[in-house]
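Reopening this one. Same input as before:
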Amino acid sequence: MLNQEALWQLFEQAGALLTGHFRLTSGLHSDRYIQCARVLMLPDQAEMLCRELVRRLDGRQVDVVVGPALGGVVLAYEMARQLGAAALFTERENGIMLLRRGFTLGAGQRVLVVEDVITTGGSAREVVELARQSGAEVVGVAALVDRSNGRVEMGVPLSALLAVEVASYEPQECPMCEAGIPVVKPGSRAV
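Same output, byte for byte:
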C-alpha cells in the first residue's frame, strides 16, 4: 500500500510536478501542473500505481475500463490488465467524446472510467455519459490525481491516489496573466 508521502515522492522523482503558468485542458490557468505521463512512462511504476487504484476499488466488478485519450490510455490498459477486463479509450471528434476504432460498449457491461488528472471532471463525465448512453453501468471513476481535492462531483464513486487543492483561475481572473507571465499548454489537447 502506498501512502500519500510515498506517492508524492514518486511524482517528484519522476519530474511530474511542474511550476509556472499553465493552461489546463479545462481552459483554466494554474501555477502548478501535474504531468502524469512522467510517472507512467516506466511500466513498473504504472503497474504499481494502477495496483493501488485497483485496491481502492474495494472489489467492484469491472468488465471494461475506458479512459479519455490521451491521458487515460495507459491507465485504461494497465487497469484493465490487472482487472482481467477489456481496455478502451475515447477520442474527441469535432469536440465530441466518442468511441472510435471499432470500440463499442454494450448494455449491462460494468465500466470503470479512468483519468490521469481530474480538475473540473469534464472529460471523465463525458466518458461516463457516453458509457451510460451505450446502456453500460458505470461503477466508478478512478484517477491518479484529483486536483479538486474531492470537490468535483462525478455522479459515481471517485477514487484518486492523490487529492490535492491546486489553485485554478479563469483566464480573465488569472494573476499570472495580469503579471504578463507567458502561458504554456503542456497537455495533450489544445484549448
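So the earlier flakiness isn't reproducible anymore. For the record, The helical segments are 4-13, 37-40, 43-55, 73-83, 122-133, 175-178.
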